[in-house]
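Researcher: Sequence recovery benchmark, item below. Answer with residues only.
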């Protein structure tokens, strides 16, 4: 048996549409064990009672796809998931499930010596459709991702420790498929130039100069176009940015992410007390939840469960001890 812990993620970060993401301190944890036969799926926490408990469960589907790629067919499977990532809110719940399933298969396959992160990223991206969420989920921190003829690639960025992600989470959900359907087939050249420049500035702001985050998160490619599907998110986003906060739609929405910055003398260990975080909390709309978080620097972690004599050793899990 292994346990896979996978973080929530926020993709796009404004202008870097489909190519940037951030890992967050909110996790799903999945215990996966090979059994003598059959399938057992248990779900607790977010999605309990709504998510399927059969072969259509996304972690199971990802596990099966990875097992097939590895040429391995386990006789049976037991899966127990404890979810804290909100479903359908733009916080990467599906990417987390896919990553958990693929990593579990890699870790449990008896013919595999260690987790191949490149292969895992490629397969997860194929299953998810794009790498912008699975890359930070797998690697942690902030990531840039792209696709080549050989599959998805990603590079990890170390985020400036003064940056505090603050999530605004509504009670409503939004289908990623619906949100993507609102995007135009093409954009004006001036908007493409704007996106290129702001995406480059975003990287510098995230890693070296958080004072530039407001300008670095300016977007023309997708947020305005998707606003009709999430008017409350659009209203909140406009309010936050007009007040000087570096705010973006988280992924496809409807969550809104603000990137607060700690001031001189403010404590990175307890950032929720920071002045900018407090100012953001005061702007929380009725019916929404404001969640100050941290950047998850580690990404997905796979550990063998105690007492299981057949569990893989930590040395067999590559960079995920």
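Model:
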């Amino acid at each position: 048996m292994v346990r896979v812990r996978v973080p929530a993620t926020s993709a796009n970060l404004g202008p870097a549409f489909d190519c940037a993401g951030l890992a967050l301190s909110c996790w799903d944890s999945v215990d996966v064990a090979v059994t003598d036969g059959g399938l057992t799926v248990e779900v607790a926490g977010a999605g309990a009672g709504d998510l399927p408990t059969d072969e259509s469960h996304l972690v199971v589907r990802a596990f099966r796809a990875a097992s097939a790629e590895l040429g391995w067919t386990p006789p049976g499977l037991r899966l127990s998931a404890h979810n804290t990532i909100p479903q359908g809110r733009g916080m990467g719940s599906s990417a987390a499930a896919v990553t958990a399933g693929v990593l579990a298969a890699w870790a449990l396959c008896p013919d595999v010596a260690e987790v191949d992160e490149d292969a895992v990223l490629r397969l997860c991206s194929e299953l998810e459709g794009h790498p912008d969420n699975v890359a930070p989920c797998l690697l942690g921190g902030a990531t840039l991702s792209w696709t080549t003829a050989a599959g998805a690639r990603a590079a990890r960025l170390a985020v400036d420790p003064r940056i505090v992600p603050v999530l605004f989470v509504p009670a409503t959900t939004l289908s990623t498929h619906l949100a993507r359907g609102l995007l135009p087939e093409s954009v004006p050249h001036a908007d493409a130039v704007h996106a290129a420049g702001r995406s480059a500035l975003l990287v510098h702001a995230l890693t070296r100069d958080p004072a530039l985050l407001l300008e670095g998160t300016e977007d023309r490619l997708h947020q305005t176009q998707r606003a009709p599907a999430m008017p409350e998110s659009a209203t909140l986003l406009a309010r936050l940015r007009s007040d000087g906060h570096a705010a973006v739609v988280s992924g496809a929405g409807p969550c809104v992410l603000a990137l607060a910055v700690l001031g001189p003398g403010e404590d990175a260990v307890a950032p929720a007390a920071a002045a900018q975080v407090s100012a953001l909390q005061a702007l929380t709309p009725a019916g929404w939840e404001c969640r100050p978080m941290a950047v998850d620097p580690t990404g997905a972690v796979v550990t063998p469960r105690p007492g299981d004599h057949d569990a893989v050793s930590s040395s067999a899990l590559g960079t995920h001890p």
